[in-house]
Write a structure and sequence with these properties.
binds zinc ion, mainly beta, globular, four-stranded mixed beta sheet
Length: 166
């Protein structure tokens, strides 16, 4: 079994973290700390989340419980059968991401959990698939006349070096 990179096993505390989908129908509990956490930039995850990347916590299946709303969960298995994702039928929130090669592990979007999960996301998968439109922490400033809207400080043309050989 491949359980991801070799990560020092953290002591189980018996502590519980609770997560939920956007509409609240599905409630998930995990025993913390989670096994590991990472940022997933792969194209599949981009589409499944409608985002440039998603941050996951990987857990042993035995440490994850659906405590409410199991009937509200639908699943999608990729055409190659290598991954199964689940989501809330009502609000569409992505809930789990399982890979057939890691049968004992299940991955949950970090965002489901408002509180701590015992692991910092220090790893990246599919970094080379990060889209050019992903936010890369460029400095921003308020956009005049649009409260709450920030705009990147440096014009993009200046930020990108011109290639004379292109
Ligand atoms: Zn929901």
């Amino acid at each position: 079994m491949n359980a991801g990179p070799k990560i020092k096993r953290a002591k189980q505390t018996g502590e519980i973290a609770t997560g939920q989908c956007l509409c609240g129908a599905v409630v998930i509990e995990i025993e913390i700390p989670a096994f590991w956490a990472w940022h997933d930039h792969s194209r599949e995850t981009q589409i499944a989340h409608g985002a440039a990347s998603a941050t996951y916590i990987g857990c042993w299946r035995s440490k994850v419980r659906i405590v409410n709303g199991a009937e509200a969960i639908n699943t999608f298995t990729s055409a190659n059968g290598q991954s199964t994702r689940s989501f809330c039928k009502t609000c569409g929130t992505p809930l789990t991401y399982a890979r057939s090669r890691d049968a004992k592990m299940i991955n949950l979007p970090r965002a489901l959990f408002a509180g701590r999960t015992g692991r910092e996301p220090r790893y990246h998968i599919g970094l080379e698939q990060m889209p050019e439109w992903a936010y890369r922490q460029e400095p921003v400033k308020p956009l005049k006349g649009y409260p709450g809207v920030m705009v990147v400080k440096t014009p993009r043309a200046k930020a990108v070096e011109m290639n004379p050989f292109a």
